[in-house]
Design brief:
The protein has 175 residues and is of the alpha+beta class. It has a single domain, classed as Alpha-Beta Complex (tt1808, chain A). Helix content is 28%, strand content 32%. It contains three helices and 13 strands, in the order ββαββββββαβββββα. The strands form four sheets. It has a six-stranded mixed beta sheet with strand order 3-6-8-9-10-11, with helices on both faces. The chain has a three-stranded mixed beta sheet with strand order 5-4-7, with helices on one face. β10 and β11 form a beta hairpin. α1 packs antiparallel against α3.
Length: 175
């Protein structure tokens, strides 16, 4: 990857430049990371990881998820600068420039690489796409209310209302 200060991902061999996320995005990542870390500790298993951290899914696919979870047996995939192979669970927070990549292209990419569960959080639309990627076609479930619990890490459970209330508060702090 170029070392020019830009953020890059490699999707099916295509180099994608990503602008740095906004402060509100990073605050929401932090909000989710705290809960993901608590859930991993409660399960006494695996490791929660916050980006930026490169994940090399294959020679032609290098991504930088916002958050991900590695099962205990996957933790040895850490190298000095990246993780080799698919995490069990990935969470992306949609930014204005990343929506199509996060919702469509990465869902297929993650499925093909062996990610078991993938959440796409869309604060502006107040919904979460949940992809259970075990089948042949990733079919997202759209969640807009209630409580959402990870299939991969059942101790990770969030209230959709709390998630988007936090997103609203964090965005208001930007004004």
């Amino acid at each position: 990857m170029p070392n020019d200060g830009q953020r890059y991902e490699l999707l099916q061999g295509e180099l994608i430049v990503s602008p740095s996320p906004e402060r509100a995005h990073q605050r929401l990542v932090k909000w989710l990371m705290v809960r993901l870390e608590i859930a991993a500790e409660a399960a006494h298993s695996g490791e929660a990881v916050v980006g930026p951290m490169d994940v090399r899914l294959s020679p032609n696919n290098l991504v930088e998820p916002d958050l991900f979870y590695l099962r205990e047996e996957q933790v040895d995939r850490f190298n000095v600068n990246y993780v080799e192979g698919a995490p069990a669970f990935v969470i992306e927070i949609v930014s204005p420039s990343s929506g199509t990549y996060d919702r469509v292209r990465k869902a297929v990419l993650y499925r093909d690489a062996g990610v078991e569960e993938y959440w796409v959080v869309e604060p502006n639309k107040r919904r979460v796409f949940v992809h259970a990627l075990g089948g042949s076609t990733p079919t997202p479930m759209i969640v807009m209310s209630g409580t959402l619990t990870s299939m991969v890490l059942p101790t990770f459970s969030i209230s959709i209302n709390e998630l988007f209330a936090a997103a609203d508060r964090l965005c208001l702090m930007e004004s």
